[in-house]
Amino acid sequence: MGEIIDRSHPMLSSRDTRRLRRVGVPGVIAVLAAMLALSACGESKDGDESTKINGSIHVPAGKPPGAVATVNGSIHIDDQAAVTSATTVNGSVHLGDHATATSLSSVNGSIALGAGAHLSGSASSVNGELTLGDGADISGSLSNVNGKITLNAAHVGGGIKTVSGSIIIGGASHVEGGILVEKPSSELVQLVRDVPRVVIGPGATVQGELRFERTVQLFVSDKATIGPVTGATAIPFTGDTPPS
Fold this sequence. Notes:
Layout: H1 2-8, H2 14-22, H3 26-41, E1 57-59, E2 68-72, E3 75-77, E4 85-90, E5 93-95, E6 100-101, E7 103-108, E8 111-113, E9 118-119, E10 123-127, E11 130-132, E12 137-138, E13 142-143, E14 149-152, E15 155-156, E16 160-162, E17 167-170, E18 174-175, E19 179-181, E20 197-200, E21 205-206, E22 210-212, E23 217-221, E24 225-226, E25 229-230, E26 235-237
Parallel strand pairs: 1-3, 2-4, 3-5, 4-7, 5-8, 6-9, 7-10, 8-11, 9-12, 10-13, 11-14, 12-15, 13-16, 14-17, 15-18, 16-19, 17-20, 18-21, 19-22, 20-23, 21-24, 22-25, 23-26
């Protein structure tokens, strides 16, 4: 698939296409589908800015929910607004406070959910931080390859997955489906050298297996609740944060 993308989608740089070939993040499929639709029909000309090739997208509250997609640009979904899906290649995605969506995905960009935001599906990025605010809720999974993952009193129903991202699960966060830190592929191993730091803070709960296929630093509060750990040794700590 990578060779077809290289030839038929000049809007992606060679660096971007190499990233797409290296990783299997589910959200990339949605991004590519959006790109194919955009390249087939071009940018919207009727004032509806839900799809673009170049440029950011702003979704105000009160607009009927629909899919939004861009290739080069960020997506900002206002507080209490709603979309079905939001996908971008080069740009961040922000879901505002108490806003709702089905899925969020980016290739090169961060994804952030505001306080009380709800995602009925999954959120994924290849190269980007993932941040969930106070009371944010994701029914599906949360995944990336590179980038810090931070939860603050948030809920994830479908587990957390990364390759080289550090993870901080703070406050009264609740993760179902466990945590998986995957071993880098042979193509990524030379690029992924830092040891991920995984912190399960006081009051947090992680249900399911915490599985580590590569070396990590795992710190678990004495006031946290976790499932079985495979591939790492948990280092207990007291207080709000572990030693640096």
